[in-house]
Known about the structure:
With 289 residues, the protein is α+β, with helices and mostly antiparallel strands. Helices cover 33% and strands 29% of the residues. The chain folds into two domains: 29-38 and 185-230 and 247-288, Elongation Factor Tu (Ef-tu), domain 3, CATH 2.40.30; 49-176, no CATH class.
Amino acid sequence: MFRYIITTIIAIIAAVGIYTQYQHYTENPWTRDGQVRAHIIQITPRVTGPVVNINIDDNSRVTKGDLLFEIDPSLYQVALDNALAKQQQAQAMLDKAVNENNRATELEKRKQGTVSVLDLNNFDNAVQTAKANLASAKAVTEEAQLNLAFTKIYAPTDGFITNLNLREGAQVVANNPLVALIDENSFWIEGFFKETDLQGVESGDNALVTLMMYPDAPLHAKVDSIGYGIAKSDGSTGNTLLPNVNPNFQWIRLAQRIPVKFKLESLPENIQLRVGTTASVKIEKTANH
Length: 289
């Protein structure tokens, strides 16, 4: 009889424990499917040419405004010199047209009929044409100055260089990304929760993040936002232009995973976030509701 009493007590304790854990999980959704994320800036040159100078190393930190690398500026310097020369020539032509127009106008003022109306119109048109040519030359000069400036590529923000494969002498092409820069000030945690766990979760709710790299240093965070949609897996077009439909059991309804974005409240100095690393996240719904 005593044995049955002990067994019953143990069963009750186990049931209470399971129910307590279930209630705790329901009130505080938890997932191991979390990752560290950050904005990655693709450093892209705006001009073409060989690389002549590299000031960065792989997996190094840079500060906004730091010179990352430089493209051979010689051709772009020549283009600028040529543009400046043409601008000076256009300025000289404008000065000549203005002088001739002023001379003809003065002569006509002194004695009417000295210069024909047609000639006066032609002199004025020559001035307008010269002004347009000068404006065009200035635009070409500005473009040449920009292209020369674009041969030096600077860091647009504080961050970390990673997976650097650039070498001096390499020929780079304009508008083709070369270097990945992780924005140091943009890190966040993204966790994927079952849709059934997100009822009552709101932006601003407290959360606890545990990084796999730092299992003994949980971080406090807050819910920043909850995703409004995910990609559809069934019905996408296959190779034969027919829809891809995954087989499933009619009596089983799998909960979809919704991305939730978390913002860390503070980060200890001894912890360095790294994009793509794993995190566990627990939302504390009871903290605010």
